[in-house]
Amino acid sequence: MGPEIISEVAIDQTLWDAIQEDQSRARHDVIPHGERHIARASDKIVQALGASDFAVSLRASVPDRNLSQSVYATYLYYREGDWVPLHVDDWNIFEFSCLVCLERTRGSSRPTATYFLLGRENLMALDLNVREAVWFHGVHIPHGRTPLSEGESVVLLNLGFSSSSRTDRPHEEKNHPEATDAGT
Ligand SMILES: [Fe+2]
C-alpha cells in the first residue's frame, strides 16, 4: 500500500474541536523527540478516536491486516528548524500511521513537506493543509520531514494502528533506541 492522501478527514466537528483543544493544551506539556516536540493525546481523545467512524474507515481500508481497535495518538509540533530524518516506524508501537494536519502556517520561503521514499529515487513530498491527511504503512515506507524555515509551523496528529496479522514482520525484533518513535 502506498501513501494515500485523504483530502478531508471524516472527523465530526465535535471531535475535531475536542482534538484541537487537546493539542492546544498538550503543547504546554511537550517532550523533545529528536528535532521536534511531541505530546500524547489525552485518554479521552485516544478513546474517542479509536471508536470514531474515521478509525473504522481506516481499518476497513486494509481488511487483510486486522488493525487494532485501540489507537496510538500523538501530537507532533514542528517549528522553525524542526525536522525528522528518513526512518521507518517501529513495529512494537504501531504499524500503520495516519498523519492528520491540525495547524499549518507557511513562511515566506519555499514550504517544507513530509516526504516518502517510494523507490530508489522516487520521493513523494506532501505539504498537508488543515484537515488533510496521509495514511501509510509506516513500518515499510521510509518517511521524514524537511527542516521548517523561518515563520513556518505545523501541528500534526499521528494516529497509529498496530496489527494482529504480522506475517511479514521482520524477524529481528529488537527494542532499539527508536522504540519511542511517534511518526512524523
Ligand atoms: Fe514515523
Key traits:
184 residues, alpha+beta, Jelly Rolls, seven-stranded antiparallel sheet, four-stranded antiparallel sheet, 3 helices, 11 strands, globular, binds fe (ii) ion, Fe2OG dioxygenase domain-containing protein
Topology overview:
Layout: E1 4-6, H1 13-26, E2 31-32, E3 37-40, H2 43-50, H3 53-60, E4 72-78, E5 84-87, E6 96-105, E7 114-119, E8 122-126, E9 133-136, E10 143-145, E11 153-161
Antiparallel strand pairs: 1-9, 2-3, 3-4, 4-11, 5-10, 6-9, 6-11, 7-8, 7-10
Fe (ii) ion binds at residues 87, 89, 138, 143, 181, 183-184.
| Number of beta strands | 11
Shape label: globular
CATH architecture: Sandwich
- Name of the CATH superfamily: q2cbj1_9rhob like domain
| Helix and strand sequence | EHEEHHEEEEEEEE
The percentage of residues in β strands lies in 25-35%
CATH topology: Jelly Rolls
Radius of gyration computed on alpha carbons: 16 Å
Number of helices: 3
CATH class bucket? Mainly Beta
* Largest sheet, strands/sense/barrel: 7 strands, antiparallel
Low-confidence stretches: 171-181
Distance between the termini: 18 Å
pLDDT averaged residue by residue? 88
